[in-house]
Structure formats: C-alpha cells, structure tokens
Specification:
By secondary structure, the protein is an alpha/beta fold. The chain is about 35% helix and about 15% strand. A hairpin with a 7-residue loop joins strand 2 and strand 3. It binds ligand PBG.
C-alpha cells in the first residue's frame, strides 16, 4: 500500500541529497530552467521583452475654458488640462523620453452640436492644443491627435446620425476628412482614427494627400471593441452618450474579425494599427501582429488603469509592480507603441532603475 501524500512530502523535504531508494524523484536530466532565473543579471540576460520609455504614448485631455487642471475622479492621477498647460506637459513628456502624446479635446457644452462641428474648427480646443504641442515638442516626441466626433457631438456618438437616429457611416466620413486636414494643418504627426466607421482610413488618407499632407500618418484604431472598460474615459471627456456603440465598435466575442478590420485598414493606407482595449485582448494583439507587418499599437484603456488604481488604493495589489507587469505583458503580446495613462510614471521608473531590478519587490 502506498504512503499517505503528507508523509511522502515530509520525507522529500527532510531529504537533501539525491533521490534515495525510498523517495522516488522524477529524473531531472540536464534541464533545469531555474538556472536562468538565479540572479538579476541572468534574468536580464535572457529576458525576451523590454518596455522602453520610447514605446509609451501619453493620452492628454485638454478642456476648453479651464484656468487650471482638474482631476478626473474615476481615473486617479489623470487630469483635464487648460490649453495653456500643453507646453508644460510636452516638456515633461520629452524629459521622460516618451514616444509621444495623444491629444484629446474637450469642448465646452455650448460648442457641442449634432454634427460635432467644433472638431474641425481651426480655433477649436483640439486644434489649438495640437499647435501648442507641435510648437513645444522637438522631433523626438511624436504628436498624435484623436480623430473622432464623440467629444464634440451633443448625442455623444462617434459619427453623425441619420433620420432614424443611427450613425450615418458615409456622411461621417466626409466630416472626418475635414477634421483630419485641420489636425494636419495644426501640426499633428499622426491622426488617430478612432470612430470605427467603415472606410475611415481611406477617407482620411485621401483627404490628407489631396491637401498635400502626405507626411502626416494615420494610426488606425483598426480593432476597437465595444468595451465596458472605457467607462472612466467618458468621464474624462465629458461624453454624453445615450445608447451604445454596438453598431460600430466590435463585439468582444470576435477575434477572426480583427483580421478583416486590420487588412482593410492596411489596404486603405494605415501606417500603424491599433488594438483596443489591451489587457483583455492580448490574444487579439498577438493575432493582428502575426497577420500584418505594420506596427501594432495597443491602448491600455481607462478601465484597465482604474482597476489597478482601485485595488492598489485598498492595499490589495502592489501598484507599481502591477503597472510594470501590465505594460510588459502588452509588449510581449506584440504591441508597440503602447498608449497608457501611466506613461510618465512608468517611463520615469524605467529610466531611473536599470531593468535588472524588474520585479524587484516581488522576487
Ligand atoms: C472615442 C474614444 C474612446 C476612447 C478613446 N477614444 C471611448 C469610446 O469609444 O467610447 C476610450 C479610451 C479609454 O477608455 O481610455 N473617441
């Protein structure tokens, strides 16, 4: 009859030599993977993926009419800023050696209308922010701008509505084209098409080229899901959405469809593809990475950040380790660049600590 498991375990623990005839150890052969985990130096030597500060892009919210920065309650550490703060933010981003910034404009309520007209206005909050950012940033920092209507429409949808209240795809495209040219004139290096309208990349690319902005790139939110994890963002931009976005953003249950979206956007001229959200869609990032050769970006969205912040505030999770791990995992899945609300602090940490310290308090 065999020994009870607890007695066998006690025997194994008491035994520090090679397996005896009474304690049967499985043969280890010559392979001991733990040899590569023994010291920080060895771990760094064989580490497969590293996040660099230049991989990181900071989303920035600029709100019309503010005189000072105002915290977003559902996103600790994130603020709505006045246009006058753009230079300071750009300086901090440059100093942290970030890859770039992604600018979002928040108009005043009175500037919103059914067509989102304030998005294209030359004097609009987003275009003024892009101008200020481009003037402050050197060539090392990429200035990107969100190209969508949801912040600017009274109904909060990413496009204009038809008589039945449905988002009218093709009428929206001509507005996106105008917005894109306005952002290019203001100095954006990349426009981020985030509305999930069919044909948006082609419409924007054509408009940019016709206006001779051939050097302005398109970062296409190609694979953007209708996600519950955007909740805090809608606070951040004061979005007044009624209804949902299920008619244009992707179904979280689908991954093969990501190939279709990605291939279309590449054929329409996308320079960079994006998958969004990131954490719950790592399989999709990996999939898009393997079927396309353009860079694949990922957006670690507001709800992903809020979850970590909330758990950390309760003392339930090691905040900094969780942040660094989440970014590493997004990179491991195949994404670069990575948009994250933690861009500044993660970059500062990465630049301050040699990576041999990765996971320093959890080892
Ligand atoms: C739409 C847009 C959204 C986000 C970025 N661009 C929200 C949405 O589709 O409802 C979400 C970003 C986040 O949650 O951090 N312009």
């Amino acid at each position: 009859m065999s020994q009870p498991a607890s007695a066998r375990l006690a025997e194994v623990l008491a035994h520090d030599g090679p397996a005896s005839s009474t304690v049967q150890m499985p043969p280890l052969g010559t392979r001991r993977p733990r040899r590569l985990r023994r010291t920080p130096g060895i771990r760094a030597l064989v580490r497969e993926h590293r996040v660099h500060s230049s991989d990181l892009v900071l989303p920035v919210f600029i709100r019309e009419g503010l005189t000072e920065s105002r915290p977003v309650t559902s996103l600790p550490g994130v603020y709505q800023h006045p246009v006058g703060k753009v230079r300071e933010i750009i300086d901090a981003a440059s100093q942290a050696e970030l890859g770039g910034v992604m600018l979002f404009g928040v108009p005043s309520e009175t500037d919103k209308d059914a067509l989102g007209s304030a998005a294209a206005a030359a004097g609009g909050v987003l275009n003024r922010s892009i101008e200020a950012a481009r003037a402050a940033a050197g060539p090392d920092l990429v200035v990107m701008s969100d190209l969508c209507l949801d912040e600017f429409t009274t109904h909060g949808h990413c496009g204009v509505l038809d008589v039945h209240g449905h988002v009218d795809n093709d009428r929206t495209l001509s507005i996106y084209a105008d917005v894109a040219v306005g952002q290019a004139v203001a100095g954006a290096d990349f426009v981020g098409t985030s509305g999930m309208m069919d044909g948006q990349v082609g419409a924007v690319r054509t408009a940019l080229d016709e206006a001779r902005h051939t050097t302005v790139g398109v970062m296409a939110y190609a694979v953007k899901y209708a996600s519950a994890f955007y909740g805090p963002f809608r606070d951040a931009v004061g979005c007044t959405l009624t209804g949902d976005r299920l008619g244009y953003q992707m179904d979280p249950a689908n991954s093969r469809e990501a190939s279709v979206e990605a291939a279309l956007d590449v054929s329409e001229g996308a320079d960079i593809l994006m998958v969004k959200p990131a954490a719950h869609y790592l399989d999709v990032i990996h999939h898009v990475r393997s079927v396309c050769d353009v860079p694949v970006a990922a957006y670690q969205v507001s709800g992903e950040a809020a979850m970590v912040e909330a758990a950390a505030a309760q003392g339930w999770i090691a905040r900094e380790e969780a942040i660094d791990e989440s970014l590493t995992c997004i990179k491991r899945a195949g994404a670069q660049p990575i948009l994250t609300y933690w861009a500044l602090e993660a970059a500062q940490r990465l630049n301050a600590y040699p990576e041999k310290h990765y996971g320093r308090t959890t080892t």
